[in-house]
Amino acid sequence: MSSLEPLAAYGLTCNVMQVISFASETAPVCKVIFETGTLDPSLVKRTAGLSEALTSLGDLLDSAPKPMNSDDQKLLDVAANETSLTQSEIAGIEDDSLRRFVEAVSQHKDKHR
């Protein structure tokens, strides 16, 4: 990444690791919802934290120094696209969608008792 400044590259790496960390914390929550049919109250905090991390990552990607060589630009485009897709998915999991998800999981669990 010849055209990215070392500090910007470090910041990007930290943001990506934070996103991975939040994702790994979310998997056990899904298991709890499936097993108990109730929502883990910490999910709201985690979702807000993930949204904040993604916003920070998007800002960092937008502020990457330009011009870039083609490899750096491809990497930046992939990161920006994935960040955008993830933000869209998070936006789709708001209270109403989450409520419907919890209801569906509870119904599924009741069928298998």
TrEMBL record:
Domain of life: Eukaryota
Protein name, UniProt field: Uncharacterized protein
Taxonomic path: Eukaryota, Fungi, Dikarya, Ascomycota, Pezizomycotina
